[in-house]
Amino acid sequence: MTDLLIHDATVVTVNRENQILKNGSIRVTDGTISSVEPTDPADRDSTAEHVIDASGKIVIPGLIDAHRHTDFTLVQGLFSELDGSELLKEAFALYHTAEPTLGESFFEAAWELACLRQLTHGVTTVNAMDFTPELGAEAVGESGVRGVIGPELADFVNPASASEQLADARRFIDTYHDSYEGRVTASIAPGGEAGCSRELWEGVAELRADYPDLRLHTHLYDSAEADTMAAGSGADDPLDLLDRYGLLDERTLLTHLLHANRDDARRIADAGAHVLHCPTVYSYFQAGNRTWFPLPALREFDANVVIGLDDPFWFDSWDLIQEAKHARMLSNFQYGAQQWSSYDLLEMLTIDAARALGLDDQIGSLEPGKRADLAIIDVDTPRHQPYSNLPSVLTNSVTAGDVETVVVDGEVLMEERAVRSMDVERVRTAATRERERLQTRTGWETSLAGSTPPKKSILRRVSARPLLRAMRQYGRGVVNQHNW
């Protein structure tokens, strides 16, 4: 008995043959796709448990956000008008004052709102690195979406010691990896060369040895002083740092690479590591002297590059489709036209991202035998019709607001824009309450016209230990760059 049948859809399979069915049907049984084939007239009178008429609509694999920080979902809009250096100061302050000031309920509401937003934007899988991973695992699991979650390990930023953070990470992995029927898995997530001591890297290497199936998810080369930071851990450069600890291979996810060069790109590709590209966050603030990451070299050496949205408080976006569009425009601006085709971008958001997460045998394309993670997009509107070149429509014209129905593991989580897996009003009420507490207890002044940070000095709002350790690790050049 078919549990779910979707018929008369334009099905973009993203399979090996790049197959697109103009009038296609997808059958799902026990959460697994059993067939993808042309629609038979009998499909329209099917007795399947759940039938969706997708006439005039497009079905694509569920979108995969390859890099996300989620703890501070509720600060959306607070930092939007700050410059890069001021934002870093306020982010440090908020990270170190929110937990004791606002408590667990703040982060619970943040994670639940994040899951709601991801779901309604067609994101069925998120790869997250956060300081509240337990809350994230439970929120992701209960919402019905899929998540790879890693406790962010950074003893130059987090006041907990390296040994404490590593022990917490081990407990998280043992408790939450492969939970919620396999939809929630764990990763090992050191913050990067800027935030981790040699002791922490040694502990990360031990974790990797003990949990060889987990992805290693980290930031790399997001500062011009990256080599100097790596030298603090006894390495020549950030890639050498990872290599010395046996952390650079096909299970490694490297985020940003803003200041990497052609040789770095070759070494990354040779290792089989994956690149998680977050274009808008850096173009928003033009962080650093280099304007873009080494895309031509990464493409030359055939490195796997995928897309992530990064922090919600940087530029306040949850639209992964638009993020891919920005990736193409910004890369074309820097390096010349046609850096990526429309179909390249679609693969980056689906099957390539699944490969980066080690999940391409389960998700990322619409093929028999894979889990049924998919999004149905309504293009039967004057804004989109008529059209040709469907990949171009999906990556240039469609926005997340066109996502109508979302299915994960064969479960219909949202249908015709009505969310079925979450109590939307409860989530919104909790988010509104915690957002108001944030403003009253931290001193942020907000209105419809904008927001203003607290007047009290950052040095009085942040404990000295983590701030000073971060400043020492960043080095004199970065401290001067950010006006600390």
UniProtKB/TrEMBL annotation:
GO-annotated molecular function: hydrolase activity, acting on carbon-nitrogen (but not peptide) bonds
Listed InterPro entries: Amidohydro-rel, Metal-dep_hydrolase_composite, Metal_Hydrolase, MTA/SAH_deaminase
One Pfam family from the record: Amidohydro_1
KW Chaperone (keyword) present: no
Record bears the keyword Nucleotide-binding: no
Keyword annotations of the record: Hydrolase
Gene3D superfamilies, A to Z: Metal-dependent hydrolases, Urease, subunit C, domain 1
Domain Amidohydrolase-related: 58-412
Stored PANTHER family: AMIDOHYDROLASE-RELATED DOMAIN-CONTAINING PROTEIN, AMINOHYDROLASE SSNA-RELATED
Name the record gives this protein: 5-methylthioadenosine/S-adenosylhomocysteine deaminase
Protein species of origin: Halolamina pelagica
